[in-house]
């Protein structure tokens, strides 16, 4: 082995583990000290059970402790846990969350946040308890003597304060998810610790503003489609787990903890209750005991938990952009809200129960929240459904409805049949058909809703009991299992779309333009030529069918493909519009008598002629040199190959870009995060010496006979504050790589609504002016013309892209359809804002 090899091996050898731990400790001194203190104190006072009395009374906090003069208790209560499970979670939370906060805002700020936020939370919470006790408020009196040991108040308050120092993406995620978790614990558990923790979170939000004035508190900034899906999925998942928190909480003081009754230890024995109620007069206690007996056993418990499992499956589908998951979660949440309104007496059908409890406003508030929380989630899902573009096939929807509906009807008939056969001996009293039909609906309702409902009869034989207690469980289990394929499995992108594999097979064959790969994007439908192998990707907006580029999958000429697609649109009552097609197709449209106009110009580079010599390339050469001096390297990769840390950085960069826009994220021919995850798409990243991503571009392939012959630029994002010229550097590196690979072309794509050419036809003048105004209005936000000017730095060939349409009278409708295609989430207020004539820059200043 040579000396150079020895040196190289020594340089690449990993550092010893103790050296890595030591460096981490030096970088996070407060986190390391906190973990050591938690561990030492737990070992000294009992890691399995926490401090015993009287030490617990001296160290813990609460209203009673503060009233007794234990002023130090808010400081000591955050350093202890109640059991081993809490200790393990606390140590992990401190290492990950507090460590992250310390890296983000420094050691002294982290120490201040960990001490101050729980103290403020305890002080504010104890004050609210004292006010409630003085007003004879039920909750405050019930929890007055409880002692709190809660390290999580400090952790939650610290990360909330640190969110002020995070970027747009993680600031929003931390705040939304932390507030949701704290609120769910408060509603479903309701212990004083949960109240103190919620107030500590709010204190952390305020402290972050003070520690970073001017930037700590910013209004809700625009989210990308991807981020909306993440936040909604988090909300659905967290609220679905809320009842589980209520079930597992040792004490149930929360306003939304009625299902905790299922796990009470005071469940009466069914046989003794039935004998007692048959032998003696039916008393109030007897009726209550009978009610509880129908909640006993695994069937009723599963019946309460399985609807929540449906919501967790739906939450996983929401992350994948599945519209089916939106409707599934909305329907289940709406159903839970409706059941709560019905059985808790909010609907007129059972209004007496709410009236009876009206003197206890907390009970009324509990009932109202039980309805409002799931209904609010359902409404939010329906309103924001446009962010979930992956539509299920009609076949998948029909299969799910038939499976679940058929199962429900079959189980209901089974219950009625078994009940009728055992009508004289199978229940606590003889039943008839009206009894069975009146009771069958409640067999499918989670039993927590039925705890106030009187019991008409109970089963006494094994067969009757099996059917009585389990048909609802079987129904919801089928609902869960049947939802997995359309929510989590592979499905076509769009309702009515043929097999996605066929689209990709045709794309690999070739015959399409540089934008042909966009046919695979969600939101597109596909028409396959019945007389050949050609295909067209399109989307219907109103009564206009707008194509995504030209035909693909068959070699030119495409005359017949275009004619047959136009006939297909006419048969469906749509106006066909070929959008962003190459000008090679102009003779076809002229022969058809269609009107055409230039909507963009594609900028094309020939990699085999790539060189950066000469005066015209001075800016590009300077950008390359600047990036190299800064230690930035280019990396050609695919999204699936990215380490998690790099993928998170790309998401963060994209989210900051979307948050800075005054209008929603655009779509149609402009890809986002979802599109760059495609396994056929390649990424070119700019990464500095510390592993930080400075900029990212994505490249769409174009094939011919299964071989990639060119790449098209799509996704472009740079980190705010990155060096000037980083995008020029990435494009130059991509061109160099493609030259080495023998690519025929590199397309910088086309900036929508930006070009140098005029309208090719007189009757397009109105449309050209409309799109010109649209381009001018969007320029301050999206900078299409600036982007077009940027691309001309690379001395590209300019290829006009056309829009062709059969009827000039349809131009107003086509213009509106294009606006909706690019900005499907545009609100009326936002539309009015950008439709107004733009003021000159001087007057705006």
From TrEMBL:
Location within or outside the cell: Cell membrane
UniProt keyword annotation of Transmembrane present: yes
Domain of life, per lineage: Bacteria
Record bears the keyword Cell membrane: yes
Domain Phosphatidylglycerol lysyltransferase C-terminal stretches: 504-805
Positions of transmembrane segments: 30-51, 71-98, 110-131, 151-169, 176-193, 199-218, 230-248, 301-319, 326-346, 366-388, 400-421
Pfam families: LPG_synthase_C
Topology with respect to the bilayer: Multi-pass membrane protein
Name recorded for this polypeptide: DUF2156 domain-containing protein
Lineage: Bacteria, Bacillati, Actinomycetota, Actinomycetes, Micrococcales
């Amino acid at each position: 082995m040579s000396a150079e090899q020895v040196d190289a091996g020594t340089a690449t050898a990993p550092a010893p583990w103790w050296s890595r731990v030591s460096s981490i400790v030096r970088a996070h001194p407060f986190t390391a000290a906190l973990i050591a203190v938690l561990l030492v104190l737990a070992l000294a006072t009992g890691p399995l059970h926490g401090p015993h009395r009287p030490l617990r009374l001296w160290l813990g906090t609460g209203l009673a402790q503060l009233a007794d003069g234990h002023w130090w208790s808010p400081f000591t209560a955050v350093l202890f846990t109640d059991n081993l499970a809490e200790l393990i979670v606390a140590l992990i939370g401190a290492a990950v969350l507090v460590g992250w906060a310390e890296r983000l805002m420094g050691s002294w700020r982290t120490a201040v946040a960990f001490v101050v936020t729980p103290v403020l939370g305890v002080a504010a919470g104890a004050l609210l308890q004292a006010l409630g006790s003085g007003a004879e408020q039920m909750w405050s009196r019930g929890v007055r003597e409880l002692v709190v040991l809660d390290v999580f108040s400090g952790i939650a308050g610290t990360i909330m304060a640190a969110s002020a120092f995070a970027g747009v993406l993680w600031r929003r995620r931390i705040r939304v998810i932390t507030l949701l978790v704290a609120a769910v614990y408060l509603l479903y558990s309701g212990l004083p610790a949960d109240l103190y923790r919620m107030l500590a979170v709010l204190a952390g939000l305020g402290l972050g503003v003070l520690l970073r004035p001017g930037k700590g508190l910013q209004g809700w900034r625009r989210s990308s489609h991807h981020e909306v899906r993440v936040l909604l999925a988090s909300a659905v998942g967290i609220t679905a787990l809320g009842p589980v928190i209520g079930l597992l909480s040792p004490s149930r003081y929360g306003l939304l903890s009625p299902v905790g009754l299922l796990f009470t230890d005071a469940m009466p024995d069914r046989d003794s209750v039935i004998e007692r109620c048959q032998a003696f007069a039916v008393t109030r206690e007897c009726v209550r005991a009978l009610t509880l007996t129908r909640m006993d056993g695994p069937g009723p418990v599963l019946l309460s938990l399985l609807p929540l499992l449906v919501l967790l499956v739906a939450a996983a589908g929401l992350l994948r952009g599945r519209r089916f998951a939106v409707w599934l979660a909305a329907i289940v949440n709406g159903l839970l809200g409706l059941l709560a309104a019905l059985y808790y007496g909010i609907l007129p059908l059972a209004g007496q129960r709410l009236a009876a409890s009206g003197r206890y406003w907390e009970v009324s508030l509990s009932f109202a929240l039980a309805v409002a929380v799931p209904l609010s989630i359902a409404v939010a899902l329906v309103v924001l459904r446009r962010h979930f573009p992956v539509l299920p096939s009609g076949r998948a929807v029909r299969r799910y409805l038939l499976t679940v509906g058929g199962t429900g009807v079959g189980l209901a008939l089974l219950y009625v049949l078994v009940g009728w056969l055992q009508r004289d001996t199978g229940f606590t009293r003889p039943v008839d058909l009206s009894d069975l039909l009146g009771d069958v609906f409640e067999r499918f309702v989670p039993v927590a809703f039925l705890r106030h409902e009187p019991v008409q009869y109970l089963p006494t034989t094994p067969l009757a009991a099996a059917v009585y207690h389990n048909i609802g469980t079987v129904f919801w289990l089928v609902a869960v299992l049947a939802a997995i394929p359309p929510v989590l499995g592979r499905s076509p992108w769009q309702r009515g779309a043929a097999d996605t594999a066929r689209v990709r097979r045709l794309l690999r064959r070739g015959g399409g333009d540089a934008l042909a790969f966009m046919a695979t994007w969600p939101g597109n439908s596909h028409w396959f030529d019945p007389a050949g192998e050609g295909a067209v990707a399109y989307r219907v907006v109103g009564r206009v069918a707008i194509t995504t580029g030209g035909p693909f999958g068959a070699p030119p000429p495409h005359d017949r493909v275009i004619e047959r697609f136009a006939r297909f649109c006419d048969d469906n009552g749509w106006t066909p519009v070929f959008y962003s097609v190459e000008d090679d197709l102009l003779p076809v449209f002229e022969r058809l008598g269609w009107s055409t106009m230039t909507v963009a110009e594609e900028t094309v580079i020939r990699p085999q002629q790539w060189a950066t010599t000469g005066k015209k390339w001075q800016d590009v050469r300077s950008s390359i040199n600047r990036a190299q001096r800064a230690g930035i390297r280019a990396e050609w990769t695919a999204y699936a190959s990215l380490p998690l840390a790099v993928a998170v950085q790309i998401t963060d960069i994209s989210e900051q870009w979307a948050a800075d826009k005054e209008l929603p994220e655009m779509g149609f021919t402009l890809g986002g995060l979802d599109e760059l995850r495609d396994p056929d798409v390649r990424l070119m990243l700019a990464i500095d010496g510390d592993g930080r991503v400075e900029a990212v571009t994505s490249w769409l392939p174009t094939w011919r006979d299964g071989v990639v012959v060119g790449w098209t630029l799509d996704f472009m994002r740079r980190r705010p504050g990155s060096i000037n010229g980083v995008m020029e550097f990435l494009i130059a590196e991509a061109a160099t790589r493609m030259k080495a690979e023998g690519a025929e072309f590199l397309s910088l794509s086309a900036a929508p609504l930006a070009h140098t050419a005029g309208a090719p036809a007189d009757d397009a003048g109105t449309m050209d002016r409309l799109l010109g105004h649209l381009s001018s209005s969007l320029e301050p936000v999206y900078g299409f013309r600036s982007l077009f000017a940027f691309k001309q730095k690379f001395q590209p060939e300019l290829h006009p892209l056309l829009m062709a349409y059969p009827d000039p009278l349809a131009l107003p409708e086509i213009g509106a359809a294009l606006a909706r295609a690019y900005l499907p989430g545009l609100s009326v207020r936002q539309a009015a804002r950008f439709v107004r004539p733009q003021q000159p820059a001087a007057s705006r200043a």
